[in-house]
Amino acid sequence: MPQLNPNPWFLIMLTSWLIFLLAIQPKLLSFTPTNLPMNNPTPTTKTTPWTWPWA
């Protein structure tokens, strides 16, 4: 079964992951986000209890 032979595919996968980890990832992490999260207080809503007619 030739599809179970990891000989050519393992080297391709390992090379692509090394390229991603060593070359692409530091370039992506150097970008600063444009929309920083803000600490806005969440508005609280006043709730009224339900008046049941049979209670």
Automatic annotation (TrEMBL):
- Name the Pfam families on file: ATP-synt_8 (PF00895)
Q: Name one GO biological process term.
A: proton motive force-driven ATP synthesis
Q: Which residues form a coiled coil?
A: none
Q: Does the keyword Ion transport apply?
A: yes
Q: Where in the cell is it found?
A: Mitochondrion membrane
Q: Which residues cross the membrane?
A: 6-24
Q: Which GO terms describe its cellular component?
A: mitochondrial membrane; proton-transporting ATP synthase complex
The membrane topology of this protein is: Single-pass membrane protein
Keywords assigned by UniProt, alphabetized: ATP synthesis, CF(0), Hydrogen ion transport, Ion transport, Membrane, Mitochondrion, Transmembrane, Transmembrane helix, Transport
**Main subcellular localisation:** mitochondrion
Xref: InterPro entries:
ATP8_metazoa (IPR001421), ATPase_protein_8 (IPR050635)
The terms under GO molecular function for this entry are: proton transmembrane transporter activity
Family stated for the protein in its record: Belongs to the ATPase protein 8 family.
Identification of the protein by name:
ATP synthase complex subunit 8
Protein species of origin: Balaeniceps rex (Shoebill)
Q: Gene of origin?
A: ATP8
